[in-house]
Amino acid sequence: ETGVTQSPTHLIKTRGQQVTLRCSSQSGHNTVSWYQQALGQGPQFIFQYYREEENGRGNFPPRFSGLQFPNYSSELNVNALELDDSALYLCASSLPTSGGSTDTQYFGPGTRLTVL
Amino acid sequence: AQSVTQLDSHVSVSEGTPVLLRCNYSSSYSPSLFWYVQHPNKGLQLLLKYTSAATLVKGINGFEAEFKKSETSFHLTKPSAHMSDAAEYFCVVSDQRYSSASKIIFGSGTRLSIRP
Questions:
Q1: Rounded to an integer, what distance in angstroms lies between the CA atom of residue A89 and that of residue A82?
Q2: Does B101 sit within 8 Å of A43, measured CB to CB?
Q3: B100 falls in which pLDDT band (50, 70, 90)?
């Protein structure tokens, strides 16, 4: 069984640039969630994708967007980067319970983004 | 609305003594509750979860947690701390509602230190 993988592991960008982070789900999982974890804080829910459709969103602006592909891998895109976007970005995959809600999440190691 | 509060930002215990990490939650619906552990430079790992079955939940590495609805608490305990338990611990609440996107809320975390 393959776990959740993320790429790249580290990334440095400058303000105003755009970034794409990638995530491969655990085998058989069709739900992916993205989180932002600022230094010294708990992860904050960005959004979730279920079968290629957005299935819930946290309190993040529209410049945070995502995609899920037919193989259930996923991308997180952030436009017009700001200094406060510097954080660890975590991806988690899961299987839905009845009704499309989420069961236990399995997390990847994260991508550390630094915005200068 | 749902929320989760971890009452201690830092807990320090001696090796071999009991561990208690406190978590209180607020939820309008029957919640699912989780504890995750995050070791430095590693991803989040699930310790245990409560999903309306037995109120005393046993997890990995000797940890357990008790769901107390009357106190809206889900404290994490371990009878005897080990040096390898030093890490950041997160309490998580999730409302499982049929046909609704799951909203996952992380606490701010408790850093557990183990003294030799």
A1: 15
A2: no
A3: very low
Inform me whether the pLDDT recorded for A110 exceeds 80: yes
pLDDT in tens, A9-50: 999 999 999 999 999 998 888 889 999 999 988 999 999 898
Nearest to B48 by CA among B27, B72, B74, B25: B74
Backbone phi, psi, residue A79, to 5°: -100, 160
Provide the 3-class DSSP secondary structure of residue A82.
coil
B98/A99 touch (CB, cutoff 8 Å), yes or no: yes
Q: What is the pLDDT of residues B78-90, one digit of tens each?
A: 999 999 999 999 9
Report helix, strand or coil for B24. Answer: strand
Token pair 């230094």 is found at: A39
Q: How many CB atoms within 10 Å of residue B25?
A: 19
Nearest chain B residue to A34, by CA:
B104
In the block, residue with structure tokens 């200068």: A116
Q: How far is A82 from chain B (nearest CA, A)?
A: 23
A-chain CB neighbours of B60 within 8 Å are none
Please state, as a whole number, how many other Cβ atoms lie within 10 Å of the Cβ of residue B101.
Answer: 19
Backbone angles phi, psi at B19, to 5 degrees: -115, 135
- Name the E strands within A2-110: 5-7, 10-13, 19-24, 31-37, 44-50, 53-57, 64-68, 74-78, 87-94, 106-107
